[in-house]
Write a structure and sequence with these properties.
By secondary structure, this protein is mainly α. It is 69% helix and 0% strand. The termini are far apart.
């Protein structure tokens, strides 16, 4: 597999070496795992922002959306 050279600080290199040693993995494996975890974190952070936007403005995502709470109140189900 062809590789690429990436410049990192000496401090990061030492940390990478230590993590690889502690986990008995290669430095490449540690980097690949770290990147996968970082990608997952970014995905869930974006999902959380999207869900918050949906909670804040549900009609933005679904213009025909009717809140069940409002519909139930109109039908006299709630508030008795």
């Amino acid at each position: 597999m062809p590789g690429a050279t990436v410049r990192i600080s000496e401090t990061s290199r030492e940390l990478l070496r230590e993590l690889a040693h502690r986990t008995r993995a290669t430095m490449q494996d540690v980097i690949e795992l770290a990147l996968a975890e970082y990608r997952k974190r970014l995905f869930w952070e974006q999902a959380a922002r999207d869900f918050q936007s949906l909670r804040d403005e549900p009609r933005t995502f679904c213009p025909g959306f009717r809140s069940r709470g409002n519909e139930s109140q109109r039908n006299g189900i709630l508030g008795r």
